[in-house]
């Protein structure tokens, strides 16, 4: 941020835009690869990426889980 002279809000906004763009690319690649790569492999890779996004969407959700993440995670298993 200091290097480019932007505020934290601008940096976060740009990173969220990049994440959205890459998710769109990932979806495009998901449908393109389904003809050459077994669907089971693609689904597992895609689900892993979705879990990583869930863990780190609002900070370090894995190492420093907040109450929102804990509630969401426990709701999956109850």
Sequence-ordered SSE layout with sheet pairings:
Blueprint (H helix, E strand, L loop, with lengths): L7 H26 L5 H18 L10 H11 L1
Summarize the structure.
This is Terpene synthase metal-binding domain-containing protein. The protein is mostly helical.
Features:
mainly alpha
Kindly describe this structure:
The chain is mostly helical. It has one domain (8-77). Helices cover 71% and strands 0% of the residues. The protein has 3 helices and no strands. The protein has helices at residues 8-33, 39-56, 67-77. The mean pLDDT is 78.
Q: Quote the beta fraction.
A: under 5%
DSSP, total strands: 0
Order of helices and strands: HHH
Query: Gap between N and C termini, in Å?
Result: 41 Å
Question: What class do helices, strands and sheet pairing give?
Answer: mainly alpha
Estimate nothing, just give the exact number of structural domains.
1
Q: On the 0-100 scale, what is the average pLDDT?
A: 78
Kindly provide the radius of gyration, computed on alpha-carbon positions and rounded to a whole number of angstroms: 16 Å
Instruction: Note the main sheet.
Output: none
Proportion of residues in helical segments: over 70%
Shape category: flat
Q: Which residue ranges are poorly predicted, with pLDDT under 50 across at least 5 consecutive positions?
A: none
Protein name: Terpene synthase metal-binding domain-containing protein
InterPro entries: Isoprenoid_synthase_dom_sf
Organism: Eruca vesicaria subsp. sativa
């Amino acid at each position: 941020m200091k290097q480019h002279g932007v505020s934290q809000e601008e940096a976060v906004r740009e990173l969220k835009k990049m994440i959205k763009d890459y998710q769109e690319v990932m979806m495009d690649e998901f449908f393109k690869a389904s003809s050459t790569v077994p669907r089971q492999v693609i689904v597992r890779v895609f689900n892993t990426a979705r879990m990583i996004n869930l863990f780190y969407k609002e900070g370090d959700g894995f190492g420093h889980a907040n109450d929102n993440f804990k509630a969401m995670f426990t709701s999956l298993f109850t």
